[in-house]
């Protein structure tokens, strides 16, 4: 089990997110003396009586000049129990681009609200994006709890409202935690507050240290995109032929029956070489080299999968795109799709709907998708791709859309419609039959 | 006001490190090496013999074992190196049968393409030989040991960082990085800097060096050295000049936390002679690596940021 937790934060500056992140870094002693000195000096320069912890995550000169404050910043802290990689995503501008980027690798999302305002529109939007990207755990930090006098009913009301929203997005109750905090004073961030005796749950850090981090379902079928074929042809290893990659889902053991896609040829795993020598079993996230029983023509871009539960091989599929490019997407666009270790030419043949972030509803058959839009499309690829629904497999259900002209990344793609709620915010009005059509499920 | 902060900063940070976290970082780095090998024509690893580049090479060897590393190495040599480090560099290259290209700053100075700075520091002079070498050898992917925790300018750096034909980093052309899907497409003449250690912290690096028992140049561990004090840093005597008038050489027990141009890489007073002792010291230390010992980063708050945009590492 991995002891590295990747998390993403979302929320606006007004909610005190920078202060919360600064507080986490500071209270876990991840801030070093010279950095701290700089914060003290800058705080004093601004005439502040207490150090402004948000300065720990403050932007740089070029960010202010060039506007890259809107970019995801990565922060690192560690406790004896776990190491954390925190993707700090700005809330206000370009929230989709940033939240999607941060959420794509996150095992947990921290959303922030101001206790005085409770759950607002933006909270719902951020939660929806985290749900769409398949972030398995959610934390709602009810910040500035000191400013509502540590009022329990206020906290309860916000927690209840958020849980209901998270449930609508498909989160089981056990995967959602609401914590009353004051990032400014430090209540319940790292240290338990004596001002919230009515709160019996964990502090934010306690929760981060103990929350289960399995990103995949335990029984997820094995998926292994081949990155590189290792053939030393040296005196010591004249006949070695191994297939190198990082396990995208499930696990693999020596003796397992596997199928190679797109060729469809079946074979058996005869060995697993890991960074620490040969092993019998390897699981999701590990970079290994597989040895197979037959000498097959396998190249970079192929996918090795569990023979009993292979992905489907398809050259036309429904997908949800998070559009990140400056130029808009129009039907018929020629693009490149990078899926696993394979890049193929593709066409976006249809735009089916666009999710309207303001109203949490969808527009059918839009003319285009623009920067920060999320929409459902149909993709046709020049070669069949071994795909899973994103809802079933985050790695083999994901792809990049790349501009063939200038190489820029245009969109993050998710196979299928991982979050039908994006189209039907008012669930009581949803037509279940229509949902079945777009999301057939496993 | 500041008191609570100062007190909390006094005790040592976490020393323990979960092994699973190192495994995850190792697998991530290996995945990145293999992606580059699969998608680029002429990748190169920047290799100085310092600890981060030694770690990079160690991971590259693992990524392609039992085949040899399919990349060349490139060292931008300021000429102001510690002899122990150059010795170590050559030993490692020979041991693994690797190909090393050296771009010597001195050659650029000798033929007039570069001019020595009045302060004698050559770290900023590395940029031109680096870019010239990338162009001359047509390197399209350049591995560096940069980590996001090193310095604020790096917190938003991508793992695949696109550089234009002038080697410059343009914030607006940097691509969002989603999942573990990296987009390395670039135009002819452009290249991509690749940072497999992006998500490692200094402590992770040392824990991994300990776990894997990776050999480093001896200057990373405590030793006796003649040093003089300048701008609050202990600098060593060498061909780069110094001590100047008023600066006296003193014999001290020191070690280096980074290895760079001798004219501006300071030693820290330390008795940490083993990896375990270094880890204890790093964990307890309240100074970031670069802030403590690299004069060139202290020139201005935005020093690193400026150099990065010029095409520095």
From TrEMBL, chain A:
Keywords for the protein's UniProt record, in alphabetical order: ATP-binding, GTP-binding, Nucleotide-binding, Nucleotidyltransferase, Transferase
Keyword Transferase part of the UniProt annotation: yes
PROSITE patterns from the UniProt entry: G_TR_1, G_TR_2
Sequence ranges assigned to domain Tr-type G in this UniProt record: 2-218
GO biological process, alphabetically ordered: sulfur compound metabolic process
EC number: 2.7.7.4
Keyword Transferase applies: yes
Chain positions covered by the region annotation Disordered: 413-442
Gene3D superfamilies listed in its UniProt record: P-loop containing nucleotide triphosphate hydrolases, Translation factors
MF terms in GO: ATP binding; GTP binding; GTPase activity; sulfate adenylyltransferase (ATP) activity
CDD domains: CysN_ATPS, CysN_NodQ_II, CysN_NoDQ_III
Class of enzymatic activity (EC top level): transferase
Name under which the protein is recorded: sulfate adenylyltransferase
Organism name: Kutzneria buriramensis
Taxonomic lineage: Bacteria, Bacillati, Actinomycetota, Actinomycetes, Pseudonocardiales
UniProtKB/TrEMBL annotation, chain B:
Pfam families named among the record's database cross-references: PAPS_reduct
InterPro entries for this protein: PAPS_reduct_dom, Rossmann-like_a/b/a_fold, SO4_adenylTrfase_ssu, Sulfate_adenylyltrnsfr_sub2
Start and end residues of each Phosphoadenosine phosphosulphate reductase domain: 43-266
SUPFAM superfamilies: Adenine nucleotide alpha hydrolases-like
Annotated spans, Disordered: 291-313
A GO molecular-function descriptor: sulfate adenylyltransferase (ATP) activity
GO biological process, one term: sulfate assimilation
Enzyme Commission code(s) on record: 2.7.7.4
Gene3D superfamilies with a match to the protein in the record: HUPs (3.40.50.620)
Entry keyword set: ATP-binding, Nucleotide-binding, Nucleotidyltransferase, Transferase
NCBIfam families: CysD, PRK05253.1
Family the UniProt entry places it in: Belongs to the PAPS reductase family. CysD subfamily.
Record PANTHER family: SULFATE ADENYLYLTRANSFERASE SUBUNIT 2
Name of the protein: Sulfate adenylyltransferase subunit 2
């Amino acid at each position: 089990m991995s002891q590295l937790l990747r998390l993403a934060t979302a929320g606006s500056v007004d909610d005190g997110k920078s202060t919360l992140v600064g507080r986490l870094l500071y209270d876990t002693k991840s801030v070093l003396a010279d950095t701290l000195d700089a914060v003290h000096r800058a705080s004093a320069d601004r005439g502040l009586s207490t150090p402004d912890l948000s300065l720990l995550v403050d932007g740089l000169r070029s960010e202010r000049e060039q506007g890259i404050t809107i970019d995801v910043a990565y922060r690192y802290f560690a406790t004896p129990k776990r190491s954390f990689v925190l993707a700090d995503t700005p809330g206000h501008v370009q929230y989709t681009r940033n939240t999607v980027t941060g959420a794509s690798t996150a095992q947990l999302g921290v959303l922030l609200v101001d206790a005085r305002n409770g759950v607002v529109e933006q909270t719902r939007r951020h939660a929806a994006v985290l749900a769409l990207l398949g972030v398995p755990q959610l934390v709602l930090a009810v910040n500035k709890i000191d400013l509502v006098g540590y009022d329990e009913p206020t906290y309860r009301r916000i927690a209840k409202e958020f849980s209901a929203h998270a449930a609508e997005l498909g989160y089981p109750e056990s995967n959602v935690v609401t914590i009353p905090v004051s990032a400014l004073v430090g209540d319940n961030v790292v240290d338990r507050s004596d001002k919230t005796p009515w709160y019996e749950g964990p502090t934010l850090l306690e929760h981060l240290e103990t929350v289960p981090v399995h990103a995949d379902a335990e029984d997820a079928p094995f998926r292994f995109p081949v990155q590189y074929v290792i053939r030393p042809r040296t005196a010591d290893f004249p006949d070695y032929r191994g297939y190198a990659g990082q396990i995208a889902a499930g696990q693999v053991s020596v003796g397992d029956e596997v199928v190679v896609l797109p060729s469809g040829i079946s074979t058996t795993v005869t060995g697993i070489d890991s960074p620490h020598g040969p092993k019998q079993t390897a699981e999701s996230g590990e970079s290994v080299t597989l040895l197979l029983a037959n000498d097959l023509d396998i190249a970079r871009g192929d996918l090795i999968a569990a023979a009993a539960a292979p992905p489907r091989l398809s050259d036309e599929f429904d997908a949800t795109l998070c559009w990140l490019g400056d130029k808009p997407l129009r039907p018929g666009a020629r693009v490149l799709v990078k899926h696993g270790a394979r890049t193929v030419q593709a066409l976006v043949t249809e735009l089916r709907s666009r999710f309207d972030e303001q109203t949490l509803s969808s527009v059918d058959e839009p003319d285009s998708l623009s920067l920060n839009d999320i929409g459902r499309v149909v993709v046709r690829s020049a070669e069949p791709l071994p795909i899973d629904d994103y809802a079933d497999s985050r790695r083999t259900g994901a792809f990049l859309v790349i501009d063939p002209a200038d190489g820029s990344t245009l969109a993050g793609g998710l196979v299928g419609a991982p979050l039908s709620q994006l189209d039907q915010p008012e669930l009581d009005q949803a037509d279940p039959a229509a949902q079945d059509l777009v999301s057939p499920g496993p | 006001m500041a008191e609570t902060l100062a007190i909390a900063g006094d005790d040592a940070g976490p020393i323990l490190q979960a092994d699973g976290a190192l495994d995850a970082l190792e697998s991530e780095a290996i995945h990145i090496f293999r992606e580059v090998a699969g998608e680029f024509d002429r990748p190169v690893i920047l290799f100085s013999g310092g600890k981060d580049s030694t770690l990079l090479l160690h991971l590259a060897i693992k990524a392609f074992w039992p085949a040899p590393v399919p990349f060349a190495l490139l060292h931008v040599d300021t000429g102001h190196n510690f002899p122990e480090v150059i010795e170590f560099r050559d030993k490692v290259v020979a041991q693994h049968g690797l190909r090393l290209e050296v771009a010597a700053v001195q050659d650029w100075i000798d033929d007039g393409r570069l001019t020595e700075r009045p302060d004698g520091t050559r770290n900023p002079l590395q940029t031109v030989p680096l870019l010239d070498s990338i162009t001359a050898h047509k390197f399209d992917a350049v591995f560096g040991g940069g980590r996001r925790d090193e310095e604020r300018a790096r917190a938003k750096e991508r793992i695949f960082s696109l550089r234009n034909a002038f080697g410059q980093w343009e914030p607006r052309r940097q691509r969002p990085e989603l999942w573990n899907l990296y987009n390395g497409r670039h135009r002819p003449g452009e290249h991509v800097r690749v940072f497999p250690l992006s998500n490692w912290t200094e402590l992770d690096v040392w824990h991994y060096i300990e776990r894997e028992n990776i050999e480093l140049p001896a200057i990373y561990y405590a030793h006796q050295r003649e040093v003089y004090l300048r701008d609050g840093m202990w600098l060593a005597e060498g061909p780069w000049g110094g001590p100047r008038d008023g600066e006296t050489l003193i014999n001290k027990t020191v070690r280096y936390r980074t290895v760079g141009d001798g004219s501006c890489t300071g030693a820290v007073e330390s008795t940490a002679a083993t990896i375990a002792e270094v880890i204890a010291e790093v964990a307890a230390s309240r100074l970031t690596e670069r802030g403590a010992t690299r004069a060139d980063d202290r020139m201005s708050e935005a020093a690193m940021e400026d150099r990065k945009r010029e095409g520095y590492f």
